[in-house]
Amino acid sequence: MVKRSILLFALILTSNLISAQTSLVDSFMFGGLMRNYRVYVPAIYSNTSAVPLVLNLHGYTSNAFQQEFYTNFKTIADTANFILVHPNGTFDLNGDQYWNNFDVSNVDDVGFLSALIDSLSNQFAIDPNRIYSTGMSNGGFMSYDLACFLNNRIAAIASVTGAMIFSHIASCNPSHPTPVMQIHGTADPTVSYTGSASFAPIEDLVDYWVNFNNCDTPAIFTALPDISTADGCTAEHYVYSGGNNNASVEFYKINGGGHTWPGSPITIGVTNQDFSATKEIWRFFRQYRLNDLVGINQEPTETIERIFPNPANQQVMIPSTNQGFKIFDLYGRCWYSVNGKSEQHLLDISSLVEGVYWVSIGEYNQRLVVVKD
Prior knowledge:
20% helix, 28% strand, alpha/beta, globular, ten-stranded mixed β-sheet
């Protein structure tokens, strides 16, 4: 949660090349809902070369506007040259915005964020190998969902005061090693460091990703200098390196820290000032490219025609294949499965809800967008 505050916002519209810092507010319809977001484009951006994309997700009861100013990635984007997007979640029954990573509704936020990446990639020169997600609290939970269920598009994630619910840990099956950074206070009153009945203890969560990435243990440990002795907490840094395809896990343990973003000048609880979470997250992200993490040939092992139509409504044509095929949703649930050789045929998909799916043919995946009238 981030305290609501009134902040100055400048909206500058430009066309073609962006020659000044630009903040844009935009929206599109997805899943029957109008979804909106804020985009920041640094002055040095040029559409002649592809740049990274960083998703920065707000916490429960907060919003994109507050997250943008609370974490302040814009000053880094200005020099590192990446596109920064702050999407908004949807509203619960109390009128608070949230991400549906606790599965309390039928809102498909993974599908929305995938569609958002598509939309931004159509507007800007985005490098598909350098797309990252971070977030605060509920946004940290959501970033973990992207690591699990949008793994083919996300190179690395960072969670500040977020965690993972047990059911999503059980269904998480990323297709490649995934670098993860976790930042968490031991006195967090909102997302307990020791976990709950629904989400994992933070140290167990870190261990999960260390094991998944096959990182070296024990971690390289550093006690950060207590630069700000008045902030009421101290910080420790754990680095688990040597993972598959050089994927690592980093953990900042804030002893006595609250449900807060380290380094933020906006204090909403015990906030560590010995380091900047924003700077460390970008330092972590910039090491990784998706194609390096995948580490395998992503081309099909046989010549495969494209599925069509795409987007599809009631039916989709599946091409001939010697390997059979499966259709998965973004939560890893299999909706159709055909084993062995199959001839081209028209598949009835009327039972699928609107959203993004994957047609898996051997080691090759094609994205399928299902739309409804």
